[in-house]
Amino acid sequence: MKPTITETRFGSITLEMGGKSVAYHHDVVIRPSGKVQKRKKKLSKQVYGTSHTISLAEANHIYQEGAEMLLIGTGAFGMVKLSDEAAGFFEEKGVEVESQPTAEAAQVWNELQGAVIGLFHVTC
């Protein structure tokens, strides 16, 4: 079951699934199954010194076989982006990538159907 995003604020995202709301105060990855995981942004920070550029290593971690789309909530000010290597990786896998500031991406997420992975940055 896919969770619904009920609120985004600087520093948090609130998801509702099965009538239960949970606020997360860190970046999250939502799998097509609905499973929510903490983003492993250290994989990108090791390469770029920042988690604002998604590395190939992090892209490998984010990817899931059968995914059709990756929706990236880029933060309140749209700071997160894919590295060229990560963008090429998702293109090679046939995964469409859409990026928007987190508040707008949350609205899109709630309307999407299918095998979608969501990555939501909760700060800048």
Overview of the molecule:
This protein has a single domain, classed as MTH938-like (Hypothetical Protein Mth938, Chain: A, 3-Layer(aba) Sandwich), CATH 3.40.1230.10. Helix content is 27%, strand content 34%. It has four helices and ten strands; from the N terminus they run βββββαβαββαβαβ. Strands 5-4-10-7-9 form a five-stranded mixed sheet, with helices on both faces. A three-stranded antiparallel sheet has the order 1-2-3. A two-stranded parallel sheet has the order 6-8. β1 (4-9) and β2 form a beta hairpin.
> How many individual β-strands?
10
Compute the separation of the termini in Å.
29 Å
Radius of gyration: 13 Å
* Shape label: globular
As a percent range, the share of strand residues is: 25-35%
The CATH first-level class comes to Alpha Beta
N-to-C SSE string, H for helix and E for strand: EEEEEHEHEEHEHE
Summarize the structure.
With 124 residues, the chain is α/β, with parallel strands linked by helices.
Descriptive keywords:
27% helix; five-stranded mixed β-sheet; 4 helices; 124 residues
Element layout with pairings:
Blueprint: E1 4-9, E2 12-17, E3 20-24, E4 28-30, E5 36-38, H1 42-48, E6 53-54, H2 56-62, E7 69-73, E8 81-82, H3 84-92, E9 96-100, H4 102-111, E10 116-120
